Amino acid sequence: MEEEKHHHLFHHKDKAEEGPVDYEKEVKHHNHLEKIGELGAVSAGAYALHEKHEAKKDPEYAHKHKIQEEIAAAATVGGGGFAFHEHHDKKDAKKEEKKADGGHHHRLF
After folding, report:
1. 21 partner at 20 to 30 Å CA-CA among 36, 46, 48, 49?
2. Which CB contacts under 8 angstroms, 24+ apart, belong to 43-51?
3. How far apart are CA 76 and CA 84, in angstroms?
4. Which residues lie below 8 Å from residue 30, measured CB to CB, with a gap of 6+?
5. Does residue 90 contact residue 33 with C-beta atoms inside 8 Å?
């Protein structure tokens, strides 16, 4: 019997079909995503502080500002978690690159 091909929404290639992995490009990619996560965390944190200030300044809509502050605080934690995750992916890619190169390279300077 022939194997049936399943059609999925996302098509993932097998590792064998991809060919050699460019570890330097992978490290740069994870570094870029880590910086984006950090930027998102900082901007959401700044917005949370802004909303906290607005809650004190505008007592009529203080409840609305408190809710927006909590949402921004959650986004801050999410951005920080994403940056942390990408940092570890970057470290793993560096380890794989070292392993593929055949071990440690000693630097003279």
Report:
1. 36
2. 43/79, 44/72, 44/73, 44/75, 44/76, 44/78, 44/79, 45/72, 45/73, 45/76, 47/72, 47/75, 48/72, 48/73, 48/76
3. 12
4. 86, 87, 89, 90, 93
5. no
Single out the residue of 40, 67, 37 nearest to residue 51, CA to CA: 67
Please state, in angstroms and rounded to a whole number, the distance separating the CA atoms of residues 86 and 27.
Answer: 10
